Amino acid sequence: MKGMFFCARAVVPFMKKSKDGAIVNVGSIAGITGAGSSMPYAVSKSAVHGLTKSLAHALAPEIRVSGVAPGAVATRWWAGREEKMKSMIGSLLLQCIAEPDDVAKLICSLIEQESLTGQIITIDSGQTL
Q1: In order along the chain (129 residues), what is the average pLDDT of each group of 10 residues?
Q2: Which residues lie closer than 8 Å to 107 by C-beta, 6 or more apart?
Q3: Domain count within the chain
Q4: Strands, sheet with 120-123, edge to edge from the N-terminal-most edge strand
Q5: CA proximity to 92, closest of 75, 110, 70
Q6: Looking at the domain assignment, is residue 22 inside a domain?
Q7: Catalytic residue among 5, 15, 41, 53
Q8: Contact predicate 1/41, CB 8 Å
Q9: CATH code, domain with 86
Q10: Contact, 74 vs 86, CB < 8 A?
Q11: pTM score
């Protein structure tokens, strides 16, 4: 979370000078649900979501700030736990685990969206519904 804050602080003067910019922070559904791999993880992701909303208020209208909250994503985090990942699929509305490319596409979309700020967008195949 500190890294996100310091990165934003470093880039804001340049974005304000150009009167345009977008920041997209990556949190997690753990920051929304309070459940995750550990309590500190969930709390830190909740802080990321709070930072995102606070920055959106502070930096508008020149800079848009949004967040992405991925659920399960097929990354190396699952190494050694592939069976657990596969067992989750049945409980997901879309019956699939997101790929890193899915998250990247959402981030790119948020950067291009000029009418959106302060929102945390969940990408979790319906896991939190």
Answers
A1: 93 93 96 88 95 98 97 89 87 94 98 97 95
A2: 24, 26, 68
A3: 1
A4: 22-26, 64-70, 120-123
A5: 70
A6: yes
A7: 41
A8: no
A9: 3.40.50.720
A10: no
A11: 0.91
